[in-house]
Design brief:
- Helices cover 31% and strands 21% of the residues.
- By secondary structure, it is an alpha/beta fold.
- Strands 3-2-7-18-19-20-21 form a seven-stranded mixed β-sheet. The chain has a seven-stranded parallel β-sheet with strand order 10-12-13-14-15-16-17.
- Helix 3 packs parallel to helix 4 and helix 4 packs across helix 7.
- It is globular.
- The protein starts with a strand and ends in a 12-residue tail after the last strand.
- Bound molecules: N-(aminocarbonyl)-beta-alanine and zinc ion (3 copies).
- The site of one zinc ion has 4 residues, from loops.
- Keywords: Hydrolase, Metal-binding.
- This is Dihydropyrimidinase.
- It is an enzyme of class 3 (hydrolase).
């Protein structure tokens, strides 16, 4: 047969078009999108289904070192298995440079953790915590040339925070190398000041986390990052934007013509800070520590902020919706309920699991409610991730030449999200009991069915660790 696989009778959705078409696959790539594709070794009937680009999640944390006594709940096998079940074909985790350590060493270590373990393709971002002369002068340029073309910097967290001069120096090198920079924008000193005051007042329960990081803290840092990016003339991505105030800063910057890109996550569209109070669903139960399940940074806000972020999505202020999957177990002394975390919110590991639920939650709340179009969904969950981080035109769309990474969606299927059905290493989901309309029923990666109806069919090691290349036009002397 001419094709290894034909996906027949579906509606093909890309960032720009929605068309009735068959998709032909050969050698792991898409080779034809046509009205009819006949001659194939295997046929998948997609009638009644949408054929979307496989989800790309450009912000996930996997097997990341998380401080003394704390262990992340996913390794590369479990995280990518969950990703596949949730309709994803590529994820982008981080290799963290330890302070005083080598960036190259970190990249090699995380790459070794990933090799042979992954169900979906991965591309590794770096986190720069210690921009020494050796890192900025040698390691970083060499790593960018070797295919690690993006990295994240932090404006908060004891072990990761960079000061303004360090941010400027790192931005300068990124501009020269054409690297893509992601910024975690929350102000370190303001958070410390507020946390100290809350602890002295005895406000140590998980909800204190929300009080210690109000929107103004994120707004200030976002503005500061934008100013630094303007000074260096560097496009940056402000990640996990949580609410109205940071969204306003980004809209302001974009209106001035600055190259500021933005990411948000389903938690900021569907959860609120109230969840951190630990109130039971409706039975009057109350356990303040249960709020730890929802502790992430920036924290979730309120319904008005959710509406502001949705509005930003509709207006095109956001380029990508990622999960910021950062899984810890709840009922675990190495997780959310670690001994120090019981004494103060300050010691509750930050992050929530979401790699498997990102697409169904965002599809349901975005597409099924009519807030965004199918084409916007494809752009925000796949195409723009590939474009921002150097995977386009290899991944992120449905056309000849692209990897055969596809997700078949049943737009009408109703499901209720349950931890019991998920594949990640965490012992809970923040979306327990959440009802969705629209479900990823088949995940195809490299032309192979890797997940079907919640069952993962691939072997770990099928997914590859991808190298990327910078766009030479982005490499500008500074
Ligand atoms: O709380 C979060 N988001 N933890 C993950 C690390 C980060 O800042 O993205
Ligand atoms: Zn972050
Ligand atoms: Zn993150
Ligand atoms: Zn899962």
């Amino acid at each position: 047969p001419e094709f290894d696989l034909a996906i027949r009778g579906g509606t093909v959705v890309t960032a720009s078009d929605t068309v009735r078409a068959d998709v032909g696959v050969r050698g792991g790539r898409i080779v034809a999108v046509a009205e009819t594709i006949a001659d194939a070794a295997r046929v998948i009937d997609a009638s009644g289904l949408l054929v979307l680009p496989g989800g790309i999640d450009s912000h996930v944390h996997i097997a990341q070192e998380s401080g003394p006594g704390i262990v992340m709940a996913d390794d590369f096998a479990s995280a990518t298995r969950a990703a596949a079940a949730g309709g994803n074909t590529c994820v982008m985790p981080f290799a963290v440079q330890p302070r005083g350590g080598s960036l190259r060493g970190a990249v090699d270590a995380y790459r070794a953790r990933a090799e042979g373990q992954c169900h979906v393709d991965v591309a590794i971002h770096m986190i720069i915590s210690d921009p020494t002369e050796a890192v900025l002068g040698q390691e970083l340029p060499a790593l960018v040339a070797d295919g690690y073309t993006s990295f994240k910097v932090f404006m908060t967290y004891d072990d990761l925070v960079l000061n303004d001069r360090q941010l400027l120096d790192v931005f300068h090198v990124a501009r020269r190398q054409g690297a893509r920079v992601m910024v975690h924008a929350e102000g370190y000193d303001a958070i410390r000041y507020l946390s100290d005051r809350l602890e002295r007042a005895g406000e140590t329960a998980p909800y204190g986390h929300a009080l210690s990081r109000p929107e103004v803290v994120e707004r200030e840092a976002a503005h500061r990052a934008i100013s630094h990016a303007e000074l260096i003339d560097l496009p940056i991505v402000i990640v996990h934007v949580s609410g109205r105030e940071a969204t306003e800063q980004i809209a302001w910057a974009q209106a001035r013509g600055l190259k500021i890109r933005a990411e948000t996550c389903p938690q900021y569209l569907t959860l609120t800070a109230e969840d951190m109070k630990g109130l039971g669903p409706d039975d009057g139960s109350f356990d303040p520590m249960a709020g730890a399940k929802y502790v992430c940074s920036p924290p979730t806000r309120d319904v008005a902020s959710q509406a502001a972020v949705w509005s930003g999505i509709r207006r095109g202020i956001f380029d990508v919706v990622s999960s910021d999957h950062c899984p810890f177990r709840y009922d675990d002394p190495q997780g959310k309920l670690n001994p120090r975390g019981r004494t103060s919110f300050r010691w509750i590991p930050n992050g929530i699991p979401g790699i498997e639920t990102r697409l169904p939650v965002f599809f349901s709340e975005g597409v099924s409610t009519g807030r965004i179009s199918l084409n916007q969904f494809a752009a925000l969950t796949a195409t723009n991730h590939a474009k921002l981080y150097g995977l386009y035109p290899r991944k992120g769309s449905i056309a000849p030449g692209f990897d055969a990474d596809l997700t078949l969606w049943d737009p009408n299927r109703r499901e209720t999200i349950r931890q019991a059905n998920l594949h990640h290493g965490s012992d809970y989901t923040p979306w327990e009991g959440f009802s969705v309309t629209g479900w990823p029923v088949v995940t195809i990666a490299g032309g192979q069915v890797i997940a079907e109806d919640g069952r993962v069919l691939s072997e770990p090691g099928r997914g590859r660790v991808l190298d990327r290349a910078v766009d030479p036009a982005e490499r500008r002397d500074a």
